[in-house]
Amino acid sequence: MTPFELVQPATLGEALALLDAEDTRPFSGGTALMLMMKAGVLRPRRLVSLQKLGLDRIEANGGLRIGAMATLRALETSAAVRSGWPVIARALRTLSNVRVRNVATVGGALAHADPHMDLPPLLAALGARLLVSGRSGERSLPVEELYAGYLETTLKRGELVTRIEVPPMGKSSGAYLKCTTRSADDWPAVGVAVVLGDENRIFVSAATDRPTRLEDEASIEKLKIEGDSHGSAQYKKQLLRVYLKRAMDEARNASR
Q: In 89-128, which ranges are E strands?
């Protein structure tokens, strides 16, 4: 691993100023970043820790507000989440393992932009939005608009995801299902998130290079499916047909 400097700013403004420099990366949970640095994929000269910025709150007041530094485990075990957004808690139980969930953060999981992640398609199906902060101010965007491709985001240099805002589910019901080639907590070959309500929203992941919205089952044929070590494109397309039907059934049953 290339040597690096670790700095710990005390304010968001200080962190954003530091991140505006080249060869600098934000450091949240570090579960993905450290692996990429050890593999030589990333070689930042400076890491900017976000631990002291107070971005770890989870609040429910009508909608759900999740600080980017909240851990996946905190989100999974939140009483407010289990009560108002149970589909999130259910999905997190099979996201990696509890050791990773104790450290990995929600913002880091989203900004990593690996299409095999479980939260992006689910949050997109729930109609969640991201608050992004930069030196020029704040902007809000739907979760799905964060992604530009495999491990690519639309974040500008010096920008951070600081908060995730999820609207109330109301009478809507949801489900997230994934097909893994080995254990239940493995990277998925296909992930499908379904939220049924006044507006049905279906998002797929792992089979595509970013969370992608489906209008219906027929639109699967138009998708550009990405084959990888988890399965060929043809195999994933068939999996998608099967898992979409299962996710739709589970979401309908959840509303009863």
A: none
Task: Specify the pLDDT at position 183.
Answer: 77
Token match 């670790």: residue?
6
Tokens of 38: 């050890």
Tokens standing for residue 146: 């964060």
Q: Which residues contact 251 (CB under 8 A, 6 or more apart)?
A: 173, 174, 175, 194, 195, 196
pTM: 0.94
**In terms of Cα–Cα distance, which of 176, 53, 37, 183 is closest to 107?**
53
Can you list the domains of the chain with their CATH numbers? Answer: 5-43 (no CATH), 58-166 (3.30.465.10), 173-254 (3.30.390.50)
Distance between CA atoms of 101 and 1, rounded to whole angstroms? 24
Average pLDDT over residues 76-84: 97
Alpha-carbon torsion (98, 106, 148, 218), positive or negative: positive
pLDDT at 226: 87
